[in-house]
Each structure stands twice: as structure tokens, then as C-alpha cells.
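Workshop exercise sheet. Pairs work together: one partner reads the sequence aloud, the other fills in the structure field after running the prediction. Swap roles for the next sheet.
Pair: D.N. / O.F.
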Amino acid sequence: MSEEIKIGGKCPFAGDSVGGVAGSEPTTDQWWPNRLKVELLHQNAPQANPEDPDFDYAKAFSELDLAAVKQDIKALLTSSADWWPSDYGNYGPQMIRMAWHSAGTYRIADGRGGAGEAMQRFAPINSWWDNGNIDKSRRLLWPIKQKYGAAISWADLIVLTGNCSLEVMGFPTYGFAGGRIDAWEPDNLTYWGPEAWYGKKIEDAPRGPFEGHPDQMVNRDLRWTGEAGDDDYDLEAPLAASNSNLIYVDPEGSAKKGIPEDSAADIRITFGRMAMNDEETVALIAGGHAFGKSHGMTPPDQIGFAPEGAPMESQGLGWHNPRGKGNAEDTMTNGIEGSWTQNPTQWDNSYLENLFKFEWEQTRSPAGALQWTPVDKNAPRTPDAHLEGVDHPLMMMTSDIALKVDPAYRKICEKFLDDFDYFTDAFARAWYKLTHRDMGPKTRYLGPEVPQEDLIWQDPIPAVDFELVDSRDIAELKAKILGADVSVSQLAAVAWGAASTFRTSDKRGGADGARIRLAPMKDWPVNNPDDLAHVLGVLEGIKRDFDGAQSGNKKVSLADLIVLGGCAAVEKAAQDAGVTLEVPFTPGRNDATAEQTDEQTFRWLEPVSDGFRTSIATTSTTTSRRSRSSSTARPCWVSPRRSGLHWSAACGCSTSTPRAPTGSTACFTDRPGVLTNDFFVNLTSPDFEWKKVDDEGLTFTLDDRHSGETKFKATRCDLIFGANAQLRQLAEFYAQKGGHEKLVKDFAKAWHKVMMHDASTSEALGDDPAPAAGSAVRNASHAHTVDDSAPYGVSGRFSTCPGRGYASILLGSNFVIL
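Structure field:
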């Protein structure tokens, strides 16, 4: 029988239309919306990056003529293009807004956001209502980016343009550092809030696309509890912006009510979440509003689609304005219309002088937004930005009046009014912090304009001014550590607790500085303070003896000893399991002091969820399995290698080993302190069944199917590796024949990566040169030359963020934690 007859004489490709293409819905997410999205840890793959794998951005930037770049930028700033004319003949104010909004997404709770990857170029940020017409600013910059190519990233160019804008208008900037690396795809990891279209929960929201007007995307009801002025008034963590799709606060006031006192409350919470104190907050608002104007000439419901929904022919430019020229004197951005000062392109103290000299009354802009105008009709007026001989009343926003009515903000304003030089310095420093806060230590900074001064928010660590230990010293120190009164589990737990605080988002935390011995880290419950104090005491004694025995300038830092102790523990655990290996160790860390540590901001590094130690804070509303995924993304790991570092392969469950707050869960072995693959073997075995211990399903027992005997206990954080289809494949891989030795070797590589994540040296940390977007190594380094011989912390080198750290970083590690 012929094939044609078999199929009834029809063409095998019958059908007159195509019903779907790759990615068409419904996808797996629509069918199973609550599944764990492991693929989020695979973002920014090398295939997305057009740069050659060996491209060295630090080298390219160092060869850049920064003065020539700045000259070209400043020439652009004082020009005007017909398709988007500059206000007052100066693009400076709108470019300041561009840089400010790029950096202003940063939040201290999880270190996400910020200028580091120029995420402003991608959705959702590129289409936030608060970023209206910033697409035009970047398009104006494109010829300069095109001219200098890969030698300057978009992320660096955006911030540098903000600095140049301030300088051309007479403001003395504090400094500039390059070193930001561009992402090549959107960030789908960062949580920007619970609101979907029209401020509804995602399950209740209508399906878009919509234009992106304020009523469609600028909402706040789901992220706040209480009312402004109430004791329980609070913003959901880790969020910082008061409203969805805003950078900071609603300029019309909290909930658009126009009440300055309520606006002050929002400002304090929001700017505080962005790591700014009251003085820095006032300096940024007063300094930024010394320049330019706000635009509100067209009702928002008449504005076209945001960039992400704009028609093809718009080529990424959104917010089409159909009124008049659509730009210049007809421009529409946030809806408020007018300028704060009489000379909007000159640095002076007019903003504060006007704010305090006059009384202000509410009015409405042509677009209908609530704003304020002087009661005194004889008050100075501000020139029209485009029309000769036309002027307008001064303008203030509700968020400006808030600085006048709030007692603490008012006191700072009065100080700035009395001392303009002090105000200038405060704004310069606050601007520098705003635009550099997410870059990490100064060792990651590039360029000739980096200030010499160390600032507390940079988490400074003393330079290494002593001779480092050599291979013979390392071997002797390992022997002393393993011979001391500390267990393998304790040593590895302390090293893990120190190193795992590192977050690639803003490069804070990590083992360097040995801050685990300082407040607040030494007191975190997840670090088991009693065991931590014991281990640190032993290591400090070893350090004291070693340093005292040296005749020259050789020393070993406590930070290096903590990491070395963990490496020695992993080697011992592997050896006891029958596998001999050497875990890489690179010296060069130093010890920070309490004076160099901002205790208040370091509190944000305390894990809300530490799946590796089965710890979930009682205040967390996020499911444990998603928290584990989030904590994995923080140090920039991606599957599969994370599973080898799950402190479960041979967990140290004896009474002498440190335990996570949940107790002896995830103990799937009868060989504590030995690095085996027992976790996987028992997790995947059909001889056992899991049963819930509590109604919430947070804790489980592993029972023998035949006898009913309880063998082990675990949490959801552990069982996800058997329940999730993708993670189960990794669990089975390490449980099968040959999996044990592979696990041990993968675990050693992943361990080294964790210990080295905060290094300024580019060590051989992995084989994937691309940073993961969302957690993202936002340093200028991921493709830099690897130098295994370079000491830890060498200036000018940067740590990589290789992929595939997820599996082996997680599942090989309970032998030291529990």
C-alpha cells in the first residue's frame, strides 16, 4: 500500500492556515502558572551577546579617549534636532532625567535595578509611564554610541551623559566611573510589584496590550498597607517605588490626593528603600529640580502606545503625541507643566529660594494634572522653553511642597539655603551615589575620573599591604585547621555564610572583608551565632600563631582563613567519601573594620530565604521553592551545577554539627560529614514515599513504603528537586552510576565559584562567559581575560558570572550545614 493511500490521498501538509507559531499561547505557563520557572536562571545566554567571547570591556574602556567622548556629548547637549527640539536650546535637563531614571530603579532590599546594565532599553522599564520620552533621549545619543562602539557601553554612556549635562549647566560633579556592562535581553527575574493592567492582580487583570496610560499602569493599591500617617503604613518589600511603573513617587502626591504631608511620607519610605538618607533625598530632589521643566500639554488618554506597543514604523519610539507639533511647546510626559526656576539651564539655588519665598496654591495643568503655582501674582516667571517672548508662572509639584512642610526635610532645606556650597557638595555626592550605588567596590571602577575618597556605601575594605601566603603556607594552614577543634560541617557552614551573602545585582556582600565576624552578620540566626563564634575563635588563634611566626611582612587575613577552612572541609568530606580532589583557593582578601561597615544597610543582606540551609524568615510571604530560586539567582547561578552544592549530598546531621533553624531536615544520609550523593539516591528512590508533617506542607517525612518507618525529614526546598520535572533530571543524573564522582567534582568547582564571586580578580570560575540578566554581574568583566595566577582583589580585574552553577551549588552541601 502506498503512503498516499495510507493517508487518504491527502497532502501530509494539509491545512489552509497556520494556527500558531513558536511561543504562541497557551504555553506551559498558561497551563501550569504556579510551576517553578527554573528557566529564569538561564537568562542572558551567550547566544544573546554579539560580542566575541574574549572581548575585554575593561581594556576597551581604558583605551577610550574619555575627554573626546565628553566633548561630543556636550556638543550634542547644546544643539537641537528638528524631530525632537531641545528645551531652552539645551538637552541637559532631559538627559539628567534619563540618567536619573536609569539609576533610580535601584533598591537596597535585593540590590536589583540601577544603571548597571542599561535595562532602561528593555521592557518593562522602557515603557513605564514615568519614562515617557526617555526613548527620545537615547535616540539622540545613538550617533555618539555608534561612533565609539563597544568601547563604551550604553550603561556607561547614559550615566556619563547625565554628568556632562550637569557640567554644561555649571554644576561641579563629584566624579564618574565606567565599568557597567550592557545586558542583551530583558530582565524577567526582578519583581516590580503585584499590579498588572489597571492595578489589578495578575489573575484578575484584563489582557493587553493597552496604550500604557497612567490609569492603565500607574497604580499603588496592592503594594501598600494602611494609609499615609498611620502607624501601619508600609510598602511591600522589596519594592521601593510608591506606584507601579514609577521611578520614585507620584509627583501629584500620595494616591494623587495633593497632600504634601502624605507625599513626604511616601518620599521618605521610597528614597530610604533606594538607600538614601534624608539629606541625600532633599539634595537629589532640590538639585535635580534646579534644572529643566516638566511637560503636561496633552491629556494622557490622547497619547499613543508606549515603545513596547508602538507600531513597527515607529522603530521603538513610543508615546506619540497627536497635538500640535507633538513636541517642543506641545510636549507631554508626566502631565505636570512648567519649570521650577527662572533660569532652568543654570545651576543656582533658585529652586529652594522660590519654594520658601512664596506661598503656593493648587492648580491644574493643561493635561489635568494637579500642581502648584505661587499665590503672589508678582512672583518671578519662567521663560517658555521654545517660544520667544512667552513666559509662564513658576511651578511646584506636591512632592516639592512636601520638602517645605515636613519638619526634617524643612530643616535640611534651610541648611541648604543658608550654605549653597554645602548644598552643592551634598548634591554632587548624592548624585554620585545614585549613579554608582549598584557598581560594588571601587576596585570595579574604571576611568580617570574615579574619586580617591572611599565612601561608606562602597563597603570599603583595606588594601592588602602584606605578603600573601604561598602554596606551602596554604598546605600547613589547612592541616592546622583540620586538626583544630572544629568539625567539617562547622568550617563549611562559616565559609558558606560569609561568601553566600554576595549578590551580583549590586556586588555587595561576600567573603572579602570577613564581615561575618561583625554586626549585623555575626548575629543573624541563619549563621548560628554560637557555632560561628567558636569557629571564628579557632581561626583567629591560627591566624595569630601564623602571623607571629613570620619574620617578614607575610600575613594571612581572617577572610582568607574562613574561605580556606571551607575549602579544607570540602576536600576532607570528599576524601572520606573516597574521592580525592583539591579545591582551588586564591588568597588576597583582607579584613574590614566596623568603621568601614554600614551596619544599617548590611541588614538588608540577611537572607529572607536561604534554601541551602532550609531557612525561611517568618515574615516571608513567598513560597519556599520560589525563595530558593530567588536566592540562587542572587549570586548568579544557573542550573544544572547548582544542585551539587545543595547542602544535602551527605548532610552533617550529628549533634555536633551546626543546624539550620528548621532542625535536622534534609538529612538524607547515614554518613554525616561525608560528601556523597545520598541525597539524590534517597530522593529519587521509589522505595520511599513522602508525607506531609504539617497542614501547610512545609515539612515532610520520608517513610519506607513497606515498613512505614520514617527514614528522613525534609522541607519543600529539598523536595522540589524531586517534584519539578526539570530539576528531577538533575537529581537523577547525580543519583545514577558515575554520578557520585561527577557530583563531587562539580561541587568543588561550584564551591570555588561561590567563594570567589566577590573577587575583583577574574578567576576560572566557570565556562559560560555571559552574566545572568536580572541577577546579572553588572561589572565590566564577564568576558575579561581569565588569570588563575592573579591574587584575589587585583584592581582592574573582575569576577566572571559563568552559567550552570545551579545544580552542583545546591545539592551537594548539607553535609556541612544541617
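Discussion prompt: The longest helix spans residues 529-548. What would you look at next?
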